[in-house]
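From the shared-data thread, chain only:
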Amino acid sequence: MEYRELGDTGLTVSRLCFGALTIGPLQANLPVEQGAAVIASALDRGVNFMDTAELYGTYPYIREAIKNRKQEVIICSKCYAYTRDGMKESLEAALRGIDREYIDIFMLHEQESLLTIKGHWEAIEYLLEAKSKGLVRAVGISTHHVAAVRAAVDMPELEVIHPIINRAGVGIADGSAAEMLSAIKMAHAAGKGIYGMKALGGGNLLANSQEALNFVLGIPELASIAVGMQNFNEVDYNTRFFSQTYIPEDLQERVARQPRRLHIDDWCEGCGACVQKCGAGALKLHGGKARVDGELCRLCGYCGAVCPLFAIKVI
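Structure, as tokens:
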């Protein structure tokens, strides 16, 4: 496994970051022991970096996976708190949840622009105090917006940025992949630690997964890329791919044949863009939200590419 410095934070992270969303209650909903075993298998293969969030509900999995482990594991979490008290509560919940005295990186979740970051400044100030006490090692933001990456460039308080980036630009809310890349280069030049998310476009680029992963691995400004993994085959495949080692043909086939489904997040607003795009007639609006007929769905990912809220995933 290759490792890189995460900007000016002093943290060294594996190129592959374990994205914990997929194992938890919002997606695969694995039993805690099973999900923890999947995480542990990635750690055993050289992954030392994990991405989670308060929203994901995956702290119990991480706590179990890192329990009694001597290897250093770098953990990033995030929350939506915008007040001092709210951030204090979220940070304390994270520390209790993973059973550690500190967390390596804590972020504002899904920031959109300079205005939203400024609107959360009270929460940032609390994180900076927590950092001075050794409770947090670095502070940052996650975002689907080019504008937020650009805004963070001039904020020394924000040391780490976790932006969405993939070859098709799926899920970028306010621009193209080229525009996001330009912002990432600016942030990297300013010393920010950057690790990407949604390299596979929320599963919508799975049909060309190798091309999608090669695209992000070819971006030198990304210290790491968070990839969601929910079973041992995916861990085996991704750690081999990121390590540029041999991937047996039978492993490639097992991963390719893995049963998948279309997942529509609760925040779908029923705009109907996906329904219009679906050539299979698998999507309908019901009760103000999009619903999928699994018998008709081809898992082509075209619907996810047009969703303005990035609410459609293939999992």
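The radius of gyration is 19 Å.
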